[in-house]
Amino acid sequence: MNRLLFILLLTASFIFAAETVKTTDASAQKNTESKTEVKVEAKEAKAEAPKTEVKAEAKEAKAEAPKTEVKAEAKEAKAEAPKKEVKAEAKEAKADAPKKEVKAEAKETKAEAELEDTQDVLDSELASSEASASTTKEKKEKIQVKFGSNFEIQAGKVFWSSEDDLNGHNLEEWFGRANLSLLTKTDRFIGKLFFSVYPGDLVVNPTYVYTEDKNTELEYRDILELREASALQRTKYFNFKLGRWENTDKHGDYFGGYIDGYKIGFKSTQKAENMMQFGFTPSENLALEFAFISTGPYLNTGDFRGLAQFRDLPSLEAIEVDLAFRTNIFDKVYSSKSDVKTNVSLKAKLNLIDDKLALFGEVAMLDLGSDSTETYIDEKGYKHSRTVVVDWKMPLTGGILFTPGVIDKIVLEAEYLADRHETVYKTNSKKIKDVLGAFYIEKSLTDRFTLSAGFHSYGSSRDFVLNGNLIGRIY
What is the CATH number of the domain that holds 329? Predict the structure, then answer.
């Protein structure tokens, strides 16, 4: 009995063990099948959607919401579903779009970025260009201001031969002045102020003054002269100048510049005049100037002056030509009886060696159309006045200009005027010459001092004079 019970118990144990093993095997097989199915689904999801889209969506998610919100949603998702389910949803999200669409979106995004970068570059270049243009304009409009001051002393000694030395002075000329100048300049504007101060003992300016006892005595007083105050505004083809200045225009030193009146002398200049001038530059070879000049108080008298300058003419590049005229036609406005005179001048310069050697010449016709009144006695002995035409005169000058470099300037020139003794262009001399000559030399001693000297005819006589001029620059 006991054996039977033992056998039954043993048999039941084996059966129970077998069932347990079978159940365990079935459970393991089920788990294995479940894992395999999940892996298959995951692989299919990976095949349906590329990694690029997931990354793009992840980036978009980052752009749309801050990190804190993403983390919060991730935590909530973890709380609502197990890890496997979240992973499965993420993997299913990968399968939403095909590979080509993701690449297209990526290319569009890249193209937009490149377009934005290009626009930024263009904006940067435009801003840089505008800034550069603004800077250039500021530079162009910047006014240059220059001050100048110097003192010059000049002496002259005549070597008497044919004329008499009536005064017996140590020097026939003893002259000096201090010059002050101010220059303002831009690309289209030039303004000038130029004063000269003459010490009383260095200029012949005798003035009789009353003393305390009501007597008179001779006194040499200083003189202040405004030699220039002008403003010039210019464009490419037009310029306008207003003020007071000297119209000294000659290639040599002693002779020439006849258009504004006959005046010869060592370092001679015309007197300053008040005028208004219009200039035109129709081409690079031609410049025109027309000036209205006041020659008397209340604008009762005035001149009209015209100048044409020809430069770099075709096949004549080495020749400079100036053609000018000046007439006192405006005197007729105040008085119809005014005597109208006209000067015409032709001036030329031939450059033989650039900046080294040149020939120059000038010819003029002075006092054209000039009238004069003379008194005569008729057959009965009565005096009468009549108007006669005064013969015009034609001075001719020419010379050589040499600038070797070691010496700043050397000028050798001469003038011819037929029948000079019959004209007003003579000095009170015993013997008057039709041909006059002059030699001029200039040399910079230092950057502050310049010495010039001249040996030339004394007036219209046969005698000669030696002149010297020393300029010292103060500022």
Answer: 2.40.160.10
Residue 102 lies in a domain: no
* Residue 308: domain span: 144-473
Going by the DSSP 8-state scheme, the letter that residue 262 receives in this structure is: -
Give CA separation, 17 vs 13, 21, 22, 135, in Å: 6, 6, 9, 101
Instruction: Tell me if 85 is assigned to some domain.
Output: no
Provide the β-strand partners of residue 234: 239
Across all residues in the chain, what is the average pLDDT?
77
Residue 27 banded pLDDT, cuts 50, 70, 90: very low
Is the predicted pLDDT of residue 418 greater than 50, yes or no?
yes
At 298-329, the pLDDT tens digits run: 989 999 999 999 999 998 899 999 999 999 99
* Cα-only R_g, the chain: 53
pTM: 0.66
Query: CB neighbours (10 Å) of residue 340?
Result: 14
Cβ neighbours for 79, distance < 8 A, ≥ 6 positions apart: none
* 100-138: pLDDT as tens digits: 444 444 444 444 555 455 555 445 655 555 555 555 555
On whether residue 62 sits in a domain, the answer given is: no
Our count of domains for the chain comes to 1
CA 361, distance to chain mean position in Å, is 33
- Distance between first and last Cα of the chain: 149
Q: Is the pLDDT of residue 226 over 80?
A: yes
Percentage helix, strand, coil for the chain under 3-state DSSP, each rounded to 5: 30, 40, 30
Determine the Cα–Cα distance for residues 119 and 134; give it in Å rounded to an integer: 22
Picking from 296, 251, 247, the residue whose alpha carbon sits closest to that of residue 269 is 247
Domain membership of residue 8 (yes or no) is: no
Closest CA to 304 of 271, 286, 278: 278
